[in-house]
């Protein structure tokens, strides 16, 4: 049996080799996606840009469920939730992270992205994570990461946000009662202004609310988050409020409904039994997809929210029962609006 130091060294060497290979191949590319036909029922957040991300090898990239964007909107890190050994998935690279530079034209419009790094998220044993990573958040000294099959939150320590931080061996920062059922896990993480962690679970079919945790100790404060759709990601805005992304697939003809909901900071400081938010964006379209990752940033005096979709590896047609899935990166302008 390898000793702990040798196990860590072996794992890191393997991960470095994988990352170097993937970076050389640059498995991701992006092009502008025409979003103008997507109409929201409310206008408190404007869809101002969109990219379609292509995967040169769907066995090594896809299934993007977690998202982080630098404060200046210049860099993104996303994590694949590939974690299982699917019968059609021989050779799948599990739990990969990808770092990219976000590109704008001279007018500030979103025009592309360039992959600049890649690697694998590892567990406490130094090996690739086997549970699906669903959310990530930077807490000032590392990345917090949650999963779809457990109530643990891992912390990857680092002084500067970078994808390589996720290839370090983490510590278990929190371990609570596991509410995960049928692939419905802790889908959303955000760090509040006071240092508490906002964690949101997916809701059960037919339920009118999902369980939210406000974590400041080993025992989380539990409240209900009222929603009609399934929450799948969360991020913190500059004023301390939270934006939650929700989505549900409504069938091939209607497509996917996506909402952005804002929770005011005041309501998070002294939460009621049920959290209610303000809907910023609400659209249904067969062109939209399974948005799960969300992150906020500021650029040119405005505040933006990015959302990324999980294409589920674009399931084989015989198993999909739905339209072909794609990876989209949407950019919303939420700047200058006060939450009630």
Q: Can you walk me through this structure?
A:
The chain has 340 residues and is mainly beta. It has one domain: Tachylectin-2, Chain A. The protein has three helices and 22 strands. It has helices at 4-25, 265-269, 317-320; strands at 28-32, 46-55, 64-69, 75-80, 96-104, 110-120, 133-138, 142-147, 152-157, 171-175, 186-191, 197-201, 209-215, 221-226, 230-236, 242-249, 256-263, 274-275, 278-285, 291-299, 302-309, 327-333. It has a five-stranded antiparallel β-sheet with strand order 1-2-22-21-20, with no helix packed on it. A hairpin with a 5-residue loop joins strand 11 (186-191) and strand 12. Residues 1-24 and 84-89 have low confidence and may be disordered.
Write a brief caption for the model.
With 340 residues, the protein is mainly β.
Short descriptors:
340 residues, mainly beta, Tachylectin-2, Chain A, 5-stranded antiparallel beta sheet, 5-stranded mixed beta sheet, 3 helices, 22 strands, disordered N terminus
Question: Secondary-structure map with pairings?
Answer:
Layout: H1 4-25, E1 28-32, E2 46-55, E3 64-69, E4 75-80, E5 96-104, E6 110-120, E7 133-138, E8 142-147, E9 152-157, E10 171-175, E11 186-191, E12 197-201, E13 209-215, E14 221-226, E15 230-236, E16 242-249, E17 256-263, H2 265-269, E18 274-275, E19 278-285, E20 291-299, E21 302-309, H3 317-320, E22 327-333
The chain-level mean pLDDT equals 84
Number of strands: 22
Which stretches of 5+ consecutive residues score pLDDT under 50? 1-24, 84-89
Output the structural class.
mainly beta
Per CATH, which architecture?
5 Propeller
Work out the helicity level: under 10%
Strand content: 35-45%
Query: Helix segment count?
Result: 3
The rounded Rg comes to 19 Å
Name of the CATH first level = Mainly Beta
Looking at CATH, which topology would you report?
Answer: Tachylectin-2, Chain A
Q: What is the number of independent domains? A: 1
């Amino acid at each position: 049996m390898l000793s702990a130091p040798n196990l860590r060294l072996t794992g890191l060497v393997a991960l470095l080799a994988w990352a170097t290979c993937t970076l050389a191949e640059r498995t991701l590319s992006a092009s502008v996606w025409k979003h103008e036909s997507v109409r929201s029922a409310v206008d408190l957040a404007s869809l101002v840009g969109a990219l379609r991300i292509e995967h040169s090898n769907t066995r090594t990239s896809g299934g993007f469920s977690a998202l982080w964007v630098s404060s200046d909107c210049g860099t993104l890190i996303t994590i694949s939730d590939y974690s299982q050994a699917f019968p059609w998935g021989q050779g799948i690279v599990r739990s990969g992270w990808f770092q990219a530079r976000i590109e704008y034209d001279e007018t500030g419009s979103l025009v592309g992205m360039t992959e600049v790094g890649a690697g694998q998220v590892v567990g406490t044993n130094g090996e690739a994570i086997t549970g699906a990573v669903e959310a990530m958040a930077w807490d000032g000294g590392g990345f917090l990461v949650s999963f779809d099959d457990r109530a643990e939150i891992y912390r990857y320590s680092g002084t500067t946000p970078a994808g390589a931080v996720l290839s370090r061996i983490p510590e278990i920062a929190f371990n609570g009662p596991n509410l995960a059922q049928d692939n419905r896990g802790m889908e959303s993480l955000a760090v509040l202004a006071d240092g508490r962690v906002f964690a949101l679970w997916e809701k059960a079919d037919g339920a009118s609310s999902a369980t939210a945790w406000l974590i400041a100790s080993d025992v989380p404060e539990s409240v209900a988050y009222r929603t009609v759709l399934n929450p799948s990601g969360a991020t913190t805005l500059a004023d301390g409020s939270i934006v939650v992304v929700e989505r549900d697939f409504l069938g091939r003809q209607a497509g996917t409904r996506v909402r952005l909901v804002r929770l005011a900071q005041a309501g998070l400081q002294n939460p009621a039994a049920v959290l209610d938010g303000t809907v910023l964006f609400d659209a249904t379209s067969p062109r939209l997809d399974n948005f799960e990752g969300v992150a906020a940033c500021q650029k040119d005096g405005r505040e933006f929210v990015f959302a990324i979709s999980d294409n589920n590896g674009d399931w084989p047609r015989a198993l999909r029962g739905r339209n072909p899935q794609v990876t989209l990166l949407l950019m919303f302008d939420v700047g200058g609006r006060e939450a009630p």
